UniProtKB/TrEMBL annotation:
Name this protein carries in UniProt: DNA repair protein RadA
Role noted for this protein: Plays a role in repairing double-strand DNA breaks, probably involving stabilizing or processing branched DNA or blocked replication forks. DNA-dependent ATPase involved in processing of recombination intermediates, plays a role in repairing DNA breaks. Stimulates the branch migration of RecA-mediated strand transfer reactions, allowing the 3' invading strand to extend heteroduplex DNA faster. Binds ssDNA in the presence of ADP but not other nucleotides, has ATPase activity that is stimulated by ssDNA and various branched DNA structures, but inhibited by SSB. Does not have RecA's homology-searching function.
Lineage: Bacteria, Pseudomonadati, Pseudomonadota, Alphaproteobacteria, Hyphomicrobiales
Record keyword Glycosyltransferase present: no
Highest taxon, organism lineage: Bacteria
SUPFAM superfamilies assigned to the protein according to its UniProt record, in alphabetical order: P-loop containing nucleoside triphosphate hydrolases (SSF52540), Ribosomal protein S5 domain 2-like (SSF54211)
Chain's gene name: radA
Residue positions binding ATP: 97-104
Motif (RadA KNRFG motif): 255-259
One Gene Ontology term of the molecular function aspect: damaged DNA binding
Amino acid sequence: MAKSQASFVCQNCGAVTSRWQGRCEACGEWNTIIEESAASGIGAQQAAGARKGRVFDLASLAEADRPAPPRILTGINELDRVTGGGFVAGSALLLGGEPGIGKSTLLIQACAALAAKNRRVVYISGEEAVDQVRLRAHRLGLGQSPVELAAETSVEDIVATLSRGERPSLVVIDSIQTMWSSVIEAAPGTVGQVRGAAQALIRFAKMSGAAVILVGHVTKDGQIAGPRVVEHMVDAVLSFEGEGGRDLRLLRSVKNRFGPTDEIGVFEMTGRGLAEVANPSSLFLSARDEAAPGAAVFAGMEGSRPLLVEFQALVAPSTLGTPRRAVVGWDASRLSMIVAVLETHAGIKLGQHDIYLSVAGGLRVREPAADLAAAAALISSLSNIPLAADSVFFGEIALSGAIRSVAQAPARLKEAAKLGFRHATIPAAAEREDAAPKSIAAKPMRHISGLAADIGSKPPRAALRSGRQG
């Protein structure tokens, strides 16, 4: 009998090598390579006694005009928004988030809301006992919800149990790292087991029509733990974000085959669980100091939702040879680029100053349209000149100092007008777009030097104070 060969698989990225080594050459991580049986890997030869392939029917693309099946709405509007209008029958979703951020709380609330509509909902925990899940549900006031519970980690037993009786509308697996299959010769949590368990559960979702949510652990750098191939296997990847010292929670769509990506849902952690935030812009701007220099309101977009947040900057003379650069909620390399552009093309000397930049409210901004708001906050802090309290900013800054247009400018301006803003500094190209509200006076900017001259033409804060005292 031929000796079965073994392969060595990195538990961080899934790379396969023929021998063990201390560091993975693919991702650079140390001590992440574990030996696994070659019979359980992708591309393994057919096992003895395996069944032959069956002939299946092929569908025609011309039949695609059939009405799409209805979405499974939970009634939690922020969750339904992020999923693209509710769960799709037969889909698989991967939900990731840091420990204690509220993943289980959100899923229990979603299960209870769906079970209240006379749908079969199953919650399977691989980390907690059934009594622990019940305690959390009672704490949320959902102790009488008809959600079916189980504490199990065997994938074969889970699929066999779910296939019995009425087809479930929603199945939650918490978490995929704890699941294991008897046909895979590896420990639970390894790449082979995670990949095999996910494949079995996704196959059950496609064949039964149930929506399956897989909960994934998160590494120290915020990435969903396990092989990246699992993210490609599922239909949607959702990330639950938030800071431990804040009550704000953000549910972000990283991947979605049935809806827009980068869509966000905003929740607030309360004593009764997660509460929806219907107007997140007003929440982010609720505690702003309108008369303080270094604060600029950015009109941004998160998916299809316009969102207004405040950029706060503090520029102070530095006594160090290398001034500090601290950024919270934005890209640090983007800040370095804006500082270089301001020094080169606007004559704003920031090289000998410490710079601290923060996005208020705990939101992380990713789009380049925030360049203009960050630059305005930096100039305002350096010159000690407050910006107009009813003004918003958006626009991308090029290396040449030119201000480029960004997408969905009318939607940004409409959100600003709804919250009472009356002035907007925008790229010159955005002025030609239609459907902009008439209640906002738009000031087009072509170059960063124009922004510096516009802010510099106003009196500094000290002069404003002396005028009030007089």
